[in-house]
From TrEMBL:
Gene Ontology terms: cellular component: extracellular region
A GO biological process held by the record: response to oxidative stress
Gene3D superfamilies: Haem peroxidase domain superfamily, animal type
Localization per record: Secreted
Protein name according to UniProt: Peroxidase
Region described as Disordered: 253-275
Amino acid sequence: MSRITDGNDSSSLQGTNSFSSAQAFNHQRVANLQNSQQILTELRAGVTAVQEEHNVQQVLLLLRNNANLCFKFINMFQESYNTVEEKKEAVKNVGILASLNPLAGNSAKDELNNAEGAHKTIKGFLTSTLHELTTAFTSFSAAIGSIKLRGVTEGQVTTVISNFETHIRDLTDEVSKTSNVQIKKVEEHEAKMRSLLEELSDKLKLDANDRLEAQFIKKQKELLRKMQTYVISGNLLIDSTFDLTLIKKTLPQLPSSSQPSSQPPPQSADGKYLLPGDQLNMQMGESFVCRYAKRVKQLFDCFQQTGPILMKNCRQRFMSLIGKKTMEEESVGGLCQTDELIARLGELQELKRVKGDGCRKSLGEADHMMIRFLIFVKKEEDEFYNVSKMSGPTPFRSFFSYGKSMSAKAQAVQLSNRSAILLTTTKMLLGELQDDSFAFSMSRDDELQKLRGYDLSRILPENDNNRCTPKNLPCNRAAKYRTFDGWCNNLKHPEFGNTFNELKRLLPPAYEDGIDEPRSFSSSGNLLPNPRVISNVVHHDKNIQDPMHSHMLMQLGQLIDHDLTHSPFDDSLLANCSSCDSSRTVSVNCVPIPIPSDDPHFLPGTCLSFVRSIPGQRQLGARNQLNQVSSFLDASPIYGSTVCEAEVLREMEGGRLLTARSQWNGRDTLPQRDEVDECRSAPQFPCFQAGDDRNSQHPALVSLQSILLREHNRIADELSSINRDWRDEQIYQETRRIVSAQWAHIVYSEYLPKILGREVVEKEELLPLQSGHFEGYDSECDATISQPFATAAFRFGHSTIGRYFSRLDPHFRPVAPDVDIADNFDNTTVIYDSEGSVDSIVLGLVSTGQMALDRHVTDGVRNRLFSVPGVPRSGLDLISINIMRGRDHGIGSYNVYREYCGLPKALSFFSLKGVMRDETIERLQTVYESAEDIDLYTGIVSELPLEGD
Ligand code: HEM
Ligand SMILES: [Ca+2]
C-alpha cells in the first residue's frame, strides 16, 4: 500500500491511482471497525467463557479462539501503523505533487486527510479496546496457570507459563504506548506468543482425556486406598473355607481410612472416644491410642509365649480388648462370626484414624498383630465349626467326588480371594465413576481397560514367589532341566505359561454386565437356552463308533488336557449349589442348571449343581479364571506343576517316583494317597496320587497315568545302572527330561496328526524334525493356555468317550467284565483286581474303538457323570457343564470365534450348510433363536470334522 514513487510521469500516474485506491482502502478500514466491534463482543464472551469453563479441553479451545481474536486486534495495530506510514508518504507526495500539479496536489491532500482520519478512528478504537485485551490476557494466563497435567513436570509448565506471561506483559506495554516506532515489536511478541501456545499445548498434550484421566486416576487412588483396608481385612479370610460371598458382603460395609465411617466411634460422657467393649478403662485422647498400641503389643507377646494356660489367659484378654467373647463364653451358635471381627477391626481402624496421629508406627505394628491374632481366632473357629458340621448329616457323596477332583490348590485359593476383592473394588470403582460427571466421555470398555492397566504392585505385592513356585531372576540360560511351574521356560518372558497364571483371553470377555456375570441373554435380548436343553436336543447319546481310532486316542487326549489346563472351583460349594435357588441362598458362585419338564433322565423341576470357576485375575477389571497347572506340555500330570507337588511324588532314591505294587500281579501302579474324601473305594481300595489331582477320576485314566509312571522308573533304573556315580537328583531330572520328551514326541508325532490331520500338522510345522533343530522359536509367542481352548475347543474329546472299557489279556481276550464308566467314577476297585487291572485296561484301550468325534456324547458322562451306583439320578451332565462353563468364563459365542478364526460369520442357520449336517442345523434351530447365540462348545462339536489320518 505505502510506496514511494520515483517522481516520473508514469509514477505520478501510479501515484494518483495509488492515492485513490488508498482512499478506498482507508474507507474500508474504517468500515471494518464495525466488524471489529463484533470481534470485541466475541472476545468479551470468550473471556467470560474461559473464566467459567472447568473442562480443560474446552479451556484450550477457547484459549486458542480468543488468542486468535487478540491476534486480529494486533493486526489492526499493524494496520494502524500502516496508516501512519501512509500519512508520511502522503505528506511527502503532497509536496511533490503540489509542485507538479495543483489539482493532483489537492487530491493528494484529500488522501492525506483521509489517511489521517482513518488512522485517528482506528487508533481511537484500539485505545478503547486496550483494556479489554489486557483483561483477556490476564484471564488467559490464569487459565493456563491452572492447567497442571500428568506427564509434565511442574517446572516445565511454570517456565512455559511465565514466558507466556512475560510476553503478554510486554505486549500490553507496547499496546498501551501505541507508539508508531514500538508498534513493530508487537509483531515479534505475537509470533513468540503463537509459538509458545504451540509449545504449551505440545508439552502438556492438552486433550480432554488427559484431564479426565487425571481425575480418574485420582479417584482410582482414592478407591485403591480403600481397597488396601479391604485387602487387609480380606486377608483374614484367606486360608479358610469361607464363602467368597461373605467377602463381597462384608467389604463395602467396612469403614476406610479415606472416608469417615457413617457411624462415629462411641463416645464417653466427656466426649472422648471409647474402645468398643473397653475393658481397660484407659485414659482417653492421644495417649490412649498410644497406650492401646502398647497394650496390643504386650498381649501379643504374651499370646505368643508357649504354654497353653498362659496362651489361653492372654487370648481371653485379647478378645476382651476387641470386645469379643471367648469361645468358652459363647454358645456354639455364636461362633464363626468373622464378619463381626472384621467389623470390629474396622471400628478400631476408624478410631485410630481419628486419634492416631501421635504414634503411627506403633499403631501400624499393633494393627499387624491384631490381624495375626484375628487370623488365629478365625482358624480356631473354623476348625471347631467343621467338627460340629461333620457330626451332622453327610451331604451327597457324588458331589464331593466331583468337587475334590476339580478343587483349587491352596495357592489358587489365595489368589482367588485377592481376585474377588479386586473384582468387588472394580465394581465399586465403576459404580462411583458412573455417578460422576467426569465419566462423560469414557465408555465402560475404556474404563475397564484403564482399570486393568493400573499397576497394583506397590499396594498389592505379588506373593507367589514362594518355595513351591520360586521365581528366580535372571533366568539361568544354561539350566538343563525345565522348572515345574514353567518359570523361565521362555527366557524373555519368564512368566509365560506358568502354573496359577490367568487363562489367556483371545477376545474381550463376553460377560453379561461386561465384568462378571455369566452370559445369559441372546442377541435379541431373550434368555439364552438352558444348557441341559441344548445337551438333550443336540448332544444326546448315539452309538456311533469311530472306525479309525482306538479308545486310547480318547484316553491320551484326556491326559494331554490334564497336562495343559485345570481351572478349578470352590468345591466346598458343590453340595449346596444343586438347589435351584442356591445362587440367592447359598452363594453367587452357584449357577444351578434347571432340569426341563421333558427331561429323559433327571427329575423335572430340580437343578443340576454348577459352581463357577474361581476368579484369578491379578488386576482390577473384568473377572478372569486361572490355570492351576503349567500350560506347557511338560508331563506335569506325572511330575506335578509346582516344586512342592513334585517332591511328594519322589522316592528320593535312584531318581525313582513312588509307586504302589499290586499284591496280585506284582506290577506297579500310582502310589496310594491317604485322604479318603472323594474316593469311593477307600479305605479298602485307596485312590492314588500323581502330578495331577484328577488322576483317580476313572480307572482308564489311572491306568494311563500308571503306564507313564512305570516308564519313568524303567528309565531311571537303566540310567542308574549305567551311571553308577549319579545321585538321586541327577537321575530323577535326567529321567524326567527323557520322559517329558517322549511324551511330547508322542503328542506331536502321533496324537496331533490324528486330531488335526496330516495336512495341517505339516503346514503348521508341528511334526518333530527328522534331523537338525527347530529354528522357528518365537519368544513373543505366549504359551499360556487360552480361554476358548480350555473351556470349549479341547473339550471336543468328551464326544469320543466310550461308555465301556474292555479288559483284555495279552492275546486280546477278555479277562474280566467291561468297566462301565458310569459306575466307576472315583472308584479304583478294578485297579486292585488280580487280572483286570492297569495292564488289561490298557490292552482294552488300544484294541477297541473310541466313539466318533461328533456332537453326540455318551450318557455315561451326559447323565451319569460322578453318579453314585445304585442311586438313581445322582449324576451330573458333563455337556451342560461345558456349555455353562463357557458362559461362566465369559467366552463369546461360536460365531464370535468363527470371525476370530477368519471364517465367515454365520448370519443365519442356513449359512451353516456345508459346515454342519442339515439335521444338526435343524436341531440347533430348535433350541437357539439365532445362529448368533450358539455356544462355542456346541458349535465346535456340531461341525463336520475335517479329514484326519
Ligand atoms: C472319561 C473321560 C473324561 C471324563 C470323565 C472327563 C470329565 C471332565 C470333567 C468332569 C471336567 C470338568 C468340567 C467342568 O467343571 O468344567 C472336564 C474338563 C475338561 N476336559 Fe474332560 N473328561 C474326559 C475326557 C476328556 C478328553 C478325552 C478330553 C480331550 C481330548 C478332555 C478335555 C477336557 C478339558 C480341556 C477340560 C477343561 C479342564 C480345565 O481347564 O479345567 N476330557 N472333563
Ligand atoms: Ca503342563
